[in-house]
Design goal:
Length: about 130
């Protein structure tokens, strides 16, 4: 495994554990400023919209997140890479019912000038479910 692939796998683990802790600052640091997110049922949105939505969810009371992921493929192509992933997550808002989601994601990452990999495009195909 190359150092770049190892760094990308570490980024995924950092994202996942930071999400579980509700650590938005760490998650945002893993995202390039020009990132675009694509999810079912919404037009594409940028990092700023991701941050606003995440802060809004936290302001309503920190949801509890649990789950697991499986990295199916990582390909590094110079300063660019893509990642296929399978996620199973459950999110429980305070006093609410647990929502479970599972599905595939496709992410494009870029190695930045500081040598760190960051997410630049994310297609998250997790369907909503109860």
């Amino acid at each position: 495994m190359s150092e770049d692939e190892r760094a990308i796998r570490e980024l995924v683990e950092t994202w996942f554990t930071a999400s579980q802790r509700g650590d938005l600052t760490t998650v945002l640091d893993l995202i390039a400023d020009d990132a675009i997110f694509m999810v079912a049922g919404r037009p594409p949105f940028d990092k700023a919209a991701f941050a606003v939505a995440s802060r809004g969810a936290a302001a309503a009371g920190a949801p509890q997140m649990d789950g697991r992921y499986r990295i199916d493929e990582v390909r590094v192509l110079g300063d660019w890479a893509y990642l296929r992933n399978f996620l199973e997550i459950s999110v429980t808002p305070p006093g609410g019912e647990t929502m479970r989601r599972s599905g595939h994601t496709l992410a494009i990452l870029r190695k930045e000038k500081d040598g760190r990999w960051r997410l630049v495009r994310d297609a998250n195909l997790l369907p909503f479910g109860g």
